[in-house]
Amino acid sequence: METRPNVSDADEPRSTTSIGTEVAPYVTGEIVARIEGTVAASPADDEQSGWTPSMPDRRTLRAEMWLVLWLSIASTAINSLLSLLDSLTKGVKLSDQSTTLVTTYIADRPWLDVLYQIAHISLRLVPVILVLHFLRRSGEGRHAIGFDLRDAKMDLVKGAVLAAVLGGIGLGFYLLAYKLGMNVRIAAVTTDRTWWTPLLLLASAAYNAVLEEVIVLAYFVHRSRQIGWKPWAQVGGSALVRASYHLYQGFGGFLGNLAMGAIFAFLYRRWNRVMPFLIAHFLIDATAFLGYYYLGGNLSWLP
Question: What is the tens place of the pLDDT at every residue in 123-181?
Fold first, then answer.
């Protein structure tokens, strides 16, 4: 028998309704009312030929959550684990090895390389569209995870503060882990220098932010809360998933992202908005990519 969420959590207002074969927790009153037919459909609903949202049962929500993770993150996590095993069995210290975050696909034909970069970013964002579809189908919509501009100013402030604090701590932790031999050298960018390269680097930063924060943070915590996971499991699960696909960086990358993931998940449970974390992630990656692109090799303290 599954345990339902601890009702003592003051920050998790919820109502329940019998939907499908099980009770689905954390359904807002408006959604329940629409499903039960006590609230008139909006004009947009009328245009959908009478379509009304339907919250799936727990089994379906659980299957959706793991399906999204396997389509979006699992392959990267597995490859990261294999990459770490490869690094550990080379007979060379981790700090004597290097990895690249953004690289060139086709060096001799820049126009084709751009197409490869655009295709890579676009195709990897399909699972995010799937998440938005699942949220819309259940009657919650993207507002359920705060993927909107309703509080743009505060989101920007929170995101900037998170980026400044965690970005600085993260850089310091990376340098320490590298010095201790726990991390490979991260050559963030090894692309050719063209006028469009900075734009591609910004696009890559945006892609990383949207994919990881919408799926690994917001959707994971949101759905795991609905299927009855305890708060510590929601936070720990999200952090562990985030850390797992950074294993290719070494143990430092794993531990650093585990800590950042726990902080993000803890705060997301309080704020219930993904935008501050999306902004923070974008700022951290954009600074790292552009900083390495322009300054890499010119700073004696940066590996």
Answer: 999 999 999 999 999 999 999 999 999 999 999 999 999 999 999 999 999 999 999 99
Angle between helices 58-69 and 126-137 in degrees, nearest 10: 170
Among the residues of the chain, which ranges form H helices?
Answer: 29-36, 43-47, 58-69, 75-88, 110-124, 126-137, 152-179, 197-211, 220-226, 231-244, 251-271, 275-295
Task: Provide the domain limits for residue 210.
Answer: 57-295
- The answer to whether position 5 is within a domain reads no
pTM of the predicted structure, to 2 decimals: 0.81
Q: What are 183's two structure tokens?
A: 């991390």
Q: What are 283's two structure tokens? A: 């700022």
| Tally of domains in the chain | 1
* Cβ-Cβ contacts under 8 Å for 165 (sequence gap 6 or more): none
**pLDDT tens across 5-30, in order?**
444 444 444 444 333 334 444 444 44
- Look-up of token digits 């009657």: 139
279/151 Cα distance (integer angstroms): 13
> Cα 271 vs. chain centroid, distance in angstroms?
16
Chain Cα centroid distance, residue 149: 18
Is residue 14 in some structural domain? no
